[in-house]
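Fig. S4 source data, part A: sequence.
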Amino acid sequence: MREFSFITRIPNEPGTLHKVAKIAKIHNANIHRIHYNYKIDPSTVFFEISSSKDAYEKIKNKLEELGYLQTSLEPLQYLKFNIFLPNRPGALFEFLDHITSTNANIGFMDFDEKSNRHDQLTISLTLENTTAVNLLLENLKRYYPMEVLEYDAKGKKLDETVFYLRFAQKIREIIGTEDEFLLKLLNDINHIVQELTRLGEDPKKVFQSIIATGNTLKNTQGNNFFASVQIISLTDDSTIYCIQPPCGGNIYLVESRGEMIMIDSGYGIYHSDIIKLFQHYGINFNQLQGIYITHADADHSGASGLYNVKSYLHEGTLSIIDKTNRAYGSTAEECVLEEVYTKLINLFSKFNPPTHVEVFPDKIIKMIGEIPVISSFKVGDMTFEVLQSLGGHLYGQVFFVCPQKGLLFTSDSLINFESLTPDRKQYNILAKNLMTSVNVDTERAKEERNTLIKLISNLNEELLGEGKECLICSGHGAISVFEGNKMKVKGEIHHYVPDS
């Protein structure tokens, strides 16, 4: 027995769901997921079954024979017009004969003889193709005075009776893919809808967040790309660069004595824009020795496969990338929200994971306070230690610290949220809308944050005598320092745009 899925578009009439269930029963298939929500789309039903391959094909064939199986996501034609009916019995029945003969779906109808429009009927329809539209118009013009109000052949104005089709067209505009892939993606997205609906979330808000996420990434590359950049000199021959792309996590470059590493690579979709940014600032990429990845989210590891250097990461990070599930290895591993979000964001952001990798050793060398040290590496005269997190934000997340220079890379466990621009804050909210929380374990995430704050306090005590302070290099937002109980941006932030 294997698991299969299919999407049906069934008539909104009694007995149709029963008929589909009967077909599954005849072929000894077990239905283990079904989702139908009249408020979203009155005709679309999602099914997942367990059956043999042969039984699945027979079920599909029978559904297709009945006209129930959704096999295409080509745009429907939308037509809205006024027609003038004769004032006699049976007039509406005869008119609807023409509509039925072309398999048109009625989305809206308005007629009232007592109104000031008298015999005018306004109707909107969806039809499968241009031929059907032309045939219908030719037939109607023979019998009725009429005026066309709107005609849309690209599915832009489809009404709510075909919600999933409208949604699929918007997805197609973002990623430009084929029907077969889109149908599978719709089934995955419906998992999010089903789960969040159970949690009391508005399903339309879910769809809006998905489309907004894809469009924001698509519309902030190329000529629309921008970045916030900090360049901080640590010594005469050591520099740190912090690049905040329009969306997602930071990219860091650490340069010392002719050597350079990258910490987190950002989204794959921004790769060519980031290369231009580096060229603008005169960064010599021949010095790049490797990429050190804090965790597996696409905005931190998604461009690493596009650089011709080795990537260094935790075993858990590699496992999450392989499983395509950001919840892997955590208590939330079975949560469908995390798994589907991973697929979506990887797709929208052109995820290109590392292929040439080296995994940090699975052995604790020592402890810094409450945090295990599992490895170390050097850049010029700078020595970094790799700290293993508790897995509150993500399994396999690590931090990097260079005590002598006062550098701490806290990934997504400690962030100066006040330093985020309004558009970046809004983008981060979209992820939360699709998962309810960006942390796979909220309690551990709080514990991680408190542990990092203690570590920063201890580092500041050690650095005080040298007139230095710990630079907090977060996964999002600006490089900051602690002043009292608050984080404050360190140094100047430059605004970069292409050709600036």
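Fig. S4 source data, part B ends here. The first helix runs from residue 16 to 26.
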